[in-house]
Amino acid sequence: MAWIELIIAGVFEVFWATTMKLSHGFSKLSFSVLTIVGMIASFYFLAKAIKVMPMSLAYPIWTGIGAVGSILIGIFFFKDHLSLWTEFFVALLIIGIIGIKVTSGH
């Protein structure tokens, strides 16, 4: 169950990062409120996961899901462009997240 909570926390991490961009520096009230709600949800599910999982495992996976998810949202919805080197390092980040999961024993 902790892994599911951690994944949900990571999804909310991507959600609030996206709505923060859409808030245009917190100048759009609806997206500003969604950002805060997303932050609270993300921290709530991270806190639930971290009760069971080691912090040294949960936190980097949470931030990794948020980072990779935000990169993908940026590419597909905001038309961000990444250099070949950046794409390479994003791939390493994904490999690192998978490696942590596979070798963690949790």
Total strands: 0
Low-confidence stretches: none
Helical content stands at: over 70%
Largest sheet: none
Average per-residue pLDDT, rounded, comes to 95
Number of domains: 1
Report, as a whole number of angstroms, the end-to-end distance.
11 Å
* Class based on secondary structure composition and strand pairing: mainly alpha
Shape verdict: flat
From N to C, what is the helix and strand string?
HHHH
Query: Mind telling me the C-alpha Rg?
Result: 15 Å
SS element count, helices:
4
What fraction of residues sit in β-strands? under 5%
InterPro entries: Small_drug/metabolite_transptr, Small_multidrug_res
Family: Belongs to the drug/metabolite transporter (DMT) superfamily. Small multidrug resistance (SMR) (TC 2.A.7.1) family.
Protein name: Multidrug efflux SMR transporter
Transmembrane segments: 29-47, 59-78, 84-103
SSE arrangement:
Layout: H1 2-22, H2 29-50, H3 55-77, H4 84-104
Helix pairs in contact: 1-2, 1-3, 3-4
Explain the overall architecture.
The structure is a single chain. The protein has helices at 2-22, 29-50, 55-77, 84-104. It has 106 residues and is an all-alpha fold. Helix 1 packs antiparallel against helix 2 (29-50), helix 1 (2-22) crosses helix 3 and helix 3 runs antiparallel to helix 4 (84-104). The model has no long low-confidence stretch (mean pLDDT 95).
